């Protein structure tokens, strides 16, 4: 049985009496200890689908269809109190900007210990000892002293390490990391991603890694779901997709990433146009206004998701050469 099994999840928003679909019938599963990447541009539905798993959607948003099965239990059928007990204890989330997630007027120690005491039922002394061990594990030196400090005493990279420690506090089975390195410089990004990969491996924790950068996927993810316009357009083994993308959008994402193995004179090939606007109706494939391989069928008919790709004419070597 998968640890997390999302089936036909649809998230909508109501505005001025009109209901708009933001996440459109996505399905995927993640096994215990596996790392799954959700990749796509801003607005593709990556974060919204994950907030639905956590039960953290705003009041304007609602899940109108589908199931979110965690260890065989549908989270959408649980009460707010039941979801709260699962959130933090069994499923944790690391957000992309730790300064807005940490309480600026509470010490780092109190914020880590709160999760430990609430979810594991340990005494104050036991919670403090565990908090020190967690900070040490995520690379915060002199953890005993730094427990007493506040978020503004920490750099961006160190604050993110604290967020990872909080996420690990109750030994969850699943961590959702929502672009955890966006606000950090490149060197710190690599350190944080390596840290998350190591602690998840050591603890046997499954990881959903949300990112807009396919460049990090081949190194850290086992599988990848590429999202566009609220839908999954391609999924499969991360290395296989990196080596031979089948959807034009995936190919475009890869071509937009600078590569060290190419001559500096080779220009980047950004995807033309703008990401799909969920409030603008587009017939057929939502990617067709930006697709270099567009055909008449693409403009009129929504492609079915089959064999890991949602495209009327999946890419292959012969087609790429012919276009």
TrEMBL record:
- How does the UniProt record describe the way this protein sits in the membrane? Peripheral membrane protein
User: InterPro entries from the xrefs?
Assistant: AAA+_ATPase (IPR003593), ABC_Ni/Peptide_Import (IPR050388), ABC_transporter-like_ATP-bd (IPR003439), ABC_transporter-like_CS (IPR017871), Oligopep_ABC_C (IPR013563), P-loop_NTPase (IPR027417)
Q: Which UniProt keywords apply?
A: ATP-binding, Cell inner membrane, Cell membrane, Membrane, Nucleotide-binding, Translocase, Transport
CDD domains, A to Z: ABC_NikE_OppD_transporters
Entry's Gene Ontology BP terms: peptide transport; transmembrane transport
Location comes to: Cell inner membrane
Q: Pinpoint the ABC transporter domain residues.
A: 4-254
Q: Which SUPFAM superfamilies match?
A: P-loop containing nucleoside triphosphate hydrolases
The record's section on SMART domains has: AAA (SM00382)
Q: Which GO terms describe its cellular component?
A: plasma membrane
Q: Name one GO molecular function term.
A: ATP binding
**PANTHER family (alphabetical):** ATPASE AAA-TYPE CORE DOMAIN-CONTAINING PROTEIN, OLIGOPEPTIDE TRANSPORT ATP-BINDING PROTEIN APPD
Family to which the UniProt record says this protein belongs? Belongs to the ABC transporter superfamily.
Q: Report the protein name in the record.
A: ABC transporter ATP-binding protein
- Which organism is the protein's source? Thetidibacter halocola
